[in-house]
Amino acid sequence: MTVMTPDQMEAALRHIGETRYHHLHPFHQMLHSGECDKDQVRAWALNRFCYQRIIPLKDATVLARMDDTVLRRVWRQRIVDHDGEIGDAPEGGLRRWLALTDGLGLDRDYVTSMEGALPAVRFACDAYIAYVRDRTLLEAVASSLTEMFSPMIIKARVSGMLKHYDFINEDVLRYFRNRLTEAPRDADFALEYVKKHATTPETQAAALKALEFKCAMLWTQLDAIQHVYVNGAPAPGAWRPGEALVAEAA
Q1: Interhelix angle 38-63/69-83, nearest 10 degrees
Q2: pLDDT in tens, the chain (250 residues)
Q3: Is the dihedral of CA 153, 218, 143, 208 positive or negative?
Q4: What is the phi/psi pair of residue 167, to 5°?
Q5: Can you list the alpha helix ranges (DSSP code H) found in the chain?
Q6: d(Cα 183, Cα 6) in Å, to the nearest integer?
Q7: Structural domains in the chain?
């Protein structure tokens, strides 16, 4: 096995996104094309909160493993982006996601408790935390490179949901507006780190596998949502459409 040049490594990483990122998942295609009913959109937002919640936890785990001061200074911005600052402003990504679930009529305490989230979604999120904790720092950073592909899916999501769902508006989708600038910034930094530090066949293969893992983790969440809320196989304890723990939409 030969060593790839940095450009070849980047091309290999991007190929993973083109073939494995969850923009290709059938549920996302339903969501963006207006084929979901309101309860299916609610189920997606409710379960996706589990992932949104662990993003700053994941980044704090990665941060704790960094010995380099400059590297930590850059990486900690990710935590601020999602947790926000003390007080009301600037609003972080977690609060922006809760604006979406609020707008869909889901009770906020119920969402944040994650009691109604699917077991497979919770397990996938736990697995990601364990991955960045237990693998090499290079693999942990490489796993974040799904951010290279997120602007593509965000643009399709925002335009599609605004077009097809009368219960969606620009304000409840404000989480995605911010990610259009945050994600490319983060991805550019992580990509340069991976290209700089993946310099052997072994480390390059590990970085590629890390990105494959993250893509699979995101895909698994949608598999669970589609199985339950499209195919009709609810897990015991999971939220069911029409349950009383949905607040009246404002």
Answers
A1: 160
A2: 799 999 999 999 999 999 999 999 999 999 999 999 999 999 999 999 999 999 999 999 999 999 999 999 999 999 999 999 876 666 899 999 999 999 999 999 999 999 999 999 999 999 999 999 999 999 999 999 999 999 999 999 999 999 999 999 999 999 999 899 999 999 999 999 999 999 999 999 999 999 999 999 999 999 999 999 999 877 778 888 877 555 554 4
A3: negative
A4: -95, 10
A5: 6-20, 26-33, 38-63, 69-83, 93-103, 108-113, 119-134, 137-143, 150-164, 174-197, 201-229
A6: 21
A7: 6-229 (1.20.910.10)
Please answer whether residues 43 and 221 qualify as being in contact, where contact means their C-beta atoms are separated by less than 8 angstroms: no
Q: Is 249 left (phi over 0), alpha (psi -120 to 50) or beta?
A: beta
CA dist list (Å): 93 to 21, 53, 77, 87: 21, 9, 12, 14
